[in-house]
Amino acid sequence: MSTELLERLRTRGWRMTPQRRTIAEVLGGNHVHLTAEEILDEARARLPEVSLTTVYNTLHELVAMGEVRELVGQRGSKRYDPNVEAHHHLRCVCCGRILDVRPEGAEHLRLPESELHGHTLVGVDIVFEGRCSDC
Ligand SMILES: [Zn+2]
Ligand SMILES: [Zn+2]
User: Fold this and answer.
1) Is the pLDDT confidence value at 32 over 90?
2) Cα–Cα distance measured from residue 53 to residue 36, given in angstroms and rounded to the nearest whole number
């Protein structure tokens, strides 16, 4: 079980204002992969003065800190993932829901030199696609 985002941020001495704290709370938990708009809606339900600018600034900062992962989903929409443990994703092609998964053999996956196209690798995200039981 990974340490919760809020707890990690507290340990790091992250500057905690009511708005930033609410955003971090909304982001916390497992299998959470929300868009900035969803984070704003959820945060405003808890603290009405949360602004979209603060949401974007906070997300940008958390991604830069390596505490939140930015995922590019369907149609280029960005989703934010507070799980920084090694994991991959299972996405429902109907409703877009994304779950954290740990595929077997993923740790052995390598991109050969000839396929790197000059890139320095910083990460890997395998996305399995399926239809969830609700769809
Ligand atoms: Zn679904
Ligand atoms: Zn995830």
Assistant:
1) no
2) 10
